[in-house]
Each structure stands twice: as structure tokens, then as C-alpha cells.
Amino acid sequence: MTVSAPRRAPDYRPVTVRTVVNRVRNMPFHWSINPYRGCTHACIYCYARVTHQYLGFEDPADFDRRILVKENAVEALRRQLADPRWRRQVIAVGTATDPYQPGEGRFRLTRALLEVLAEFGNPVSITTKSPLVVRDLDLLRRLAAGPGCSVHFSVATLDAGIWRVIEPGTPHPRRRLEALRRLREAGIRAGVLLAPVLPGLTDRRDRLEAVVAAAADAGAAWVTPLVLRLPAVARHWCLERLAEAYPALAAAYARAYDGPNAPTRYVRALERRVAGLAARYGIPGQKDAPAERCGPEQVQLPLAVNSGSC
To answer: How much is the pLDDT for 210?
Structure first.
């Protein structure tokens, strides 16, 4: 396995914005907030790298180290929520970058934005890989008791070797699950995004079951799988990083992904498997999950990968 070069300290750059609530299309939500642009979590599969290219950062690695801090985000949010045309729709916080990445401990932008959302009685959905979200439990309780609040913890795998390759800057997945437990014990709606599922790597039955079982033990209200997407900008970066540790897998992805999405047949089979596991472990809302129709060890893959390489 190739050892990557040491990561450089992040370069935080303040920016001002006209708006902070953004319209989102082709997603299960319609509005989003990202307090930061760029993310030191350095997940190799992150589709949001393209957002830095819009700003003239040509090196994909700049997304991991040049972090733009929206210093006037609170004022922009307050202005948008006060607009009489605003209908208090759910706002997803953390759709392109993690709102609780390490810089949040310093800048506290996410907390400040949640305070405004609670003040205006606006429902919130948060997605994160960080246990730092527990810091804001007081605000999450306030939102949950009022307009509504849900927290999605992204967990791709519990395998330490795989985690270090695909998410080198993130907190350990088990720390995320412990944070999930604390939120559930406090009465907050929270669950797991089993994401992304990497075909031929994290979709082995034992690896999927490990995440589902740990999620159930932590009290997850749901487990939702999302299969790896490889849009154009993320594709080259992701495959190059994967090739350092799993060259056969990277080559297989290059063949199998003729567009950004894995084949639909594979995605549906994977969803059935996870739904079946979630139902087995008693995760709410999974009782009527369809029966598994896959082999005993692994979902049938659209990839010609030697399983021994993974």
C-alpha cells in the first residue's frame, strides 16, 4: 500500500456571501446551508470538490486544505429567514461540506446558524461525520421540541483499514456512533447514512452487517444506504487515491462506472440487503423490508473484482 504524503495544515480564508440558504434540486430536500466551502475531512469520494474549481482552485487537493469560512453567514441567514416569502421549509445543514469539521470548533459558525434557525422556528436536518455535534445538544433539543430536527451520521464502514484510506481526516466511525447514542438518549431523531457503499469493498455482508448492528446498538432510528457516486470531477481523484491501496478495485470502477452512478440493478440489490439487515436488528421502520435475494456472502456486483484484493 502506498503511504500518502503528510497532510498540510488547513488554510482558513474568510469570505462574505449574499445568501447562505441555497436552493437544491434533484435531492430529497429543497434547501441547504453550508457554513464552509472545502472540508478537511478529505474524503476521497467527495463530489463537492467541483465547488472549488468554480472559485479558480484547480488542484483537487485544495478542497481539503483551503477552507472558506462564510464569516457573514449569520447575518445572511437572518435576512433570508425574515423575508415574508420564506415558508419555513426544512433546511439541510451540511450537504456539500461537513458543518462539524474541525474548523467549527474554532469558528462556531454552525452553532450560530442553528441558534438563528431555532429563533425563527425553522426545521433542520443535519448531516455529519463528527461527534462535535454533541456540543450543540442544547440547541438540538430546542429545535426538536419546536419546529423539528433530525441528525444523519454518515458511516461508510467500521473496518479501520478501509476507513483510513477513504476518509483520512474524519473522526473514527465508532466515535460517530457514540455521538448518535447520546443524541438518541436525549430524544433527538438521529440515524445512520450507510454512505457511501463502495462496491467490492464495503458491501461484503459482514462489513454491512457490522455497521447495521452497531447502528442498532446505538439506537439509530434508521439506516439508509447510499452507493458511491463518481461524477466527473470526483472520479479521477477518487480512483487515483483508491489505486494506491486497491489497484484492482480502482481499475474495475473505471470499467463499470460509465457515468456517475452504479448500475441500478446493483443499487436495488444493495438496498434490499441493508433493509433486510436493518429489519433483523429491529431498527424502526424496517419491519416490512423485502427479503434478501442475494448470495450468502456478498451482493452480486457489476464489477469483475478479485475479492482477495479487497
So the answer is: 98
